[in-house]
Amino acid sequence: MMDWLLLANRVLDGGDITDDEALAILNCPDDELLLLLQGAYRIRKTYYGNKVKLNMIMNAKSGLCPENCGYCSQSSISTAPIPTYKMVNKETILQGAKRAYEGKIGTYCIVASGRGPSDKEIDIVVSAVKEIKETYGLKVCACLGILKPEQALRLKEAGVDRYNHNINTSKEHHPHITTSHTYDDRVRTVETVKEAGMSPCSGVIIGMKETKQDVIAMARSLKALDADSIPVNFLHAIDGTPLEGTKELHPRYCLKVLALFRYINPTKEIRISGGREVNLRSLQPLGLYAANSIFVGDYLTTAGQEKHADFQMLEDLGFDIDFAPASYAR
């Protein structure tokens, strides 16, 4: 029986866990799961107390993507019936920011499908972000695909705080998920974001037929990239995509994955992201003993949990919402 609290204390003292210990976390017996989460919570509480960061997605451009990512309903090879539209206008992005501010959502995420943004799309985002920062003071995260260095600098100058570009899976497993871009393409974008001075956000999708060693490699890769925010998605397999019908996950394993990411990335924001409702199910609250961030509302092409249920969950847990945008704080 592993002493999970002893392992947590080693992490808090600045130590790392071994690959054998990482695998032990993913293979943790179910009757030790609460002890594992107690250790993860000790780490989480040290750095984040009982606060939870809330995030909201604005799907600013849907579908029409030339990439062939096997999990995505917006890809060129997907036959899923989803809304498709070009980049929305500035006013629509601002309306979303207003909803986020009124809902005490601290981070507003502007997401657009595609390999990477055009200069015209960057123009729209830059104009909207400037007004969002002046009016609401929200933290803004953009997720627009592969960035050119000059585009990254424009986003930074406009006030974008964070840029998301997920590695999604391990380098070894990546060719099984998509071939229209490489794992290194994704890493380069994260490095471009860092060089421009934006906070890097990069995460994963669990449940895409990867091995447990792949999951460990993902967590270690994100540590090496020094991603400030790590969204952990759990595959919500969509009909019409190559991963249609894939059901590898159960709630207890999802909790072990979240614990692993906390033990390996102790100081980072770990966000329970897409698929939490269908994979964690009734165990969603336990996930927040390892993670400290969630999305509220709908995702890109799938529905999220009702907002009132999320707020009730946080209240029942006794956790506080981390909400202090610049204009609100004044």
Topology diagram in text:
Layout: H1 4-12, H2 19-26, H3 33-48, E1 51-61, H4 90-102, E2 107-112, H5 119-135, E3 139-143, H6 149-158, E4 162-164, H7 183-196, E5 199-201, E6 204-206, H8 212-225, E7 229-234, H9 251-264, E8 269-272, H10 276-279, H11 284-287, E9 293-295, H12 307-317, E10 320-321, H13 326-329
Parallel strand pairs: 1-2, 1-9, 1-10, 2-3, 3-4, 4-5, 6-7, 7-8, 8-9
Oligomer: single chain
Listing every helix as H and every strand as E from the N terminus to the C terminus, the arrangement reads HHHEHEHEHEHEEHEHEHHEHEH
Total E-strand runs: 10
Report the total helices: 13
Class per helix and strand makeup: alpha/beta
Distance between the termini: 51 Å
Mean pLDDT: 94
Characterization of this structure:
- This protein is of the alpha/beta class and 330 residues long.
- The protein is 42% helix and 14% strand.
- The protein is built from 13 helices and ten strands.
- It has helices at 4-12, 19-26, 33-48, 90-102, 119-135, 149-158, 183-196, 212-225, 251-264, 276-279, 284-287, 307-317, 326-329; strands spanning 51-61, 107-112, 139-143, 162-164, 199-201, 204-206, 229-234, 269-272, 293-295, 320-321.
- Strands 1, 2, 3, 4, 5, 6, 7, 8, 9 and 10 form a ten-stranded parallel sheet that branches.
- Strand 2, helix 5 and strand 3 form a beta-alpha-beta unit.
- Helix 6 (149-158) crosses helix 7.
- The chain is globular and about 55 Å long.
Please summarize what this structure is:
By secondary structure, the chain is an alpha/beta fold. About 40% of the residues lie in helices and about 15% in strands.
